[in-house]
Design a protein that fits this description.
This protein is α+β, with helices and mostly antiparallel strands. It has one domain: Rossmann fold, CATH 3.40.50. It is about 55% helix and about 20% strand. α3 runs antiparallel to α5 and α4 packs across α5.
């Protein structure tokens, strides 16, 4: 099995954990459980993790930048409120990644 996931970084304080949950995509929640342990509990014994967090940050910032360059078109397509909300979400997400609160990894398991 192989999959890519965005998750709350381990070892955060309670306030950092709450900030990470608010900053990431809506599906992000680790429930404070290590991904390797969760995968192992499913019966996989060989687990390789590749950290893609740096690329995640580049992608998040690129989305924000490119949407800004095309603001008029984006506002016409999705409305000003939705555009502004998405831009804000991308900025918050990028700041959380930079702060070490959110991670993205590729897991390959067998």
């Amino acid at each position: 099995m192989a999959f890519v996931t965005i998750f709350v970084a381990p070892g955060l304080t309670p306030s950092e954990y709450r900030r990470a949950l608010r900053s990431g995509p809506t599906f992000v929640s680790s429930r404070r459980k290590d991904h390797g342990e969760l995968i192992a509990s499913a019966g996989f014994d060989r687990i390789e993790e590749t950290d893609l967090t740096a690329e995640f940050l580049l992608t998040s910032r690129a989305w924000e930048t490119e949407r800004s360059k095309r603001a008029a078109e984006m506002i016409a397509a999705e409305g000003e409120a939705a555009f502004n909300e998405r831009q804000s979400d991308l900025d918050v997400q990028s700041r959380a990644i930079e702060a070490g609160l959110l991670r993205r990894s590729l897991f390959v398991c067998s």
